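User: Please fill in residues for this 382-position structure.
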């Protein structure tokens, strides 16, 4: 049976890989709509033609006009800031949210309110709007796309929630594994963007270098699986082959392992609980290999502990953490902030923040606006 899919962020890393999975699915999935910011109009137009999308959303109104002129008049083109939100509620079976950043929150809520299965790659929307997403999501409506949370999702299917002792998230360690804080002082943007395993966008790649990304994933795991923060651990697994693990009360541990290929969790999220055959090559078990696990150096990489604190404070603290970090990453990439100062500045912003419980997307936006202003003030003072 075919599933109709809407892909948000279709020209980004997750979006393009999702479309590749769909193209190879032998009719299991059909693209109903696609959407993107508008910076890659030629690619978006090509995608719309290739997949015969019924609707295309472009966040940039001027780019939407360009797309509209290029496509057949039968294709509905949505333009402007609300376009992604409207597309997220378009008739379909699954909405894949591959947007980067907390701007994905409104589309996430729109997809949930419309009753769609949400394949969630946009972790920031869950983190920034956690209370709102939790309130609106039905059981099983959100299926994770992140490789770590997809791994936990699969492992948790083997037992009851009351049998879980803890979740163990694995981290590659990024490009600076083994370096001390002092050695990180002169890191350049080019060095931070050289991830040893994954090919991702610049913000996510820098977040992986600072381990902010892993901190966000700790918050996400708590929200997705209702496991206390104290029972969510992070270990460094350089090979990125074991994507995460679940430790059970009897002492056994289940791990999900696969080659580092995002097409696997994408395909699983689109088709859950069915598995699509031959999405990516499996391991060759005839080839010798070694898998290593080691503790995280939280002195050099304090982002995970900082994120855990923000998550435990709850309310809009995770939104503040995420928004302040986005500002700091932008400043680092522009050469206006040193690498260790990214997390230092986020910590300072959190320290002066008074936690509030968001009751609407506007509340989340207010918290983010405050955090961005506070971060910019501190960056300017450096």
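Assistant: Residues filled in for all 382 positions:
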């Amino acid at each position: 049976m075919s599933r109709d899919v809407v892909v948000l962020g279709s020209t980004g890393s997750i979006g393009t890989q999702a479309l590749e999975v769909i193209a190879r699915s032998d009719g299991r999935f059909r693209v109903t709509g696609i959407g993107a910011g508008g910076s890659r109009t030629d690619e978006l137009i090509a995608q719309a033609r290739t997949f015969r999308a019924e609707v295309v959303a472009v966040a940039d109104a001027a780019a939407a006009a360009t797309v509209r002129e290029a496509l057949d008049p039968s294709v509905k083109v949505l333009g402007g800031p609300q376009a992604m939100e409207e597309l997220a509620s378009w008739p379909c079976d699954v909405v894949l949210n591959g947007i980067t950043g907390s701007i994905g929150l409104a589309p996430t809520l729109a997809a949930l309110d419309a009753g769609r299965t949400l394949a969630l790659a946009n972790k920031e929307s869950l983190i920034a709007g956690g209370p709102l997403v939790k309130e609106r999501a039905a059981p099983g409506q959100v299926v994770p796309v992140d490789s770590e949370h997809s791994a936990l999702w699969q492992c948790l299917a083997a037992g009851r929630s009351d049998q879980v002792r803890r979740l163990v998230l694995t981290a590659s360690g990024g490009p600076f594994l083994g370096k001390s804080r002092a050695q990180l002082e002169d890191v350049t943007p080019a060095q931070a963007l050289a991830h040893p395993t994954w090919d991702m966008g610049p913000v996510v790649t820098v977040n992986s270098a600072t381990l902010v990304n892993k901190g966000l994933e700790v918050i996400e795991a708590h929200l997705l699986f209702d496991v206390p923060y104290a029972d969510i651990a992070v270990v460094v697994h350089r090979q990125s082959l074991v994507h995460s693990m679940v430790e059970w009360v009897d002492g056994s541990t289940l791990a999900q392992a696969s080659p580092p290929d995002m097409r696997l969790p994408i395909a699983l999220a689109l088709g859950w609980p069915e598995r699509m055959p031959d999405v990516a090559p499996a391991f060759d078990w005839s080839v010798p290999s070694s898998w290593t696990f080691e503790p995280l150096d939280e002195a050099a990489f304090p982002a995970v502990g900082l994120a855990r604190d923000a998550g435990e404070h709850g309310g809009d603290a995770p939104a503040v953490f995420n928004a302040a970090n986005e500002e700091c990453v932008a400043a680092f990439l522009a050469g206006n902030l040193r690498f260790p100062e990214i997390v230092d500045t986020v910590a300072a912003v959190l320290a002066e923040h008074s936690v509030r419980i968001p009751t609407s997307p506007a509340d989340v936006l207010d918290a983010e606006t405050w955090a961005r202003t506070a971060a910019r003030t501190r960056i300017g003072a450096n």
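For context: Residues 314-382 form a domain with the Rna Polymerase Sigma Factor; Chain: A fold (CATH 1.10.1740.10).
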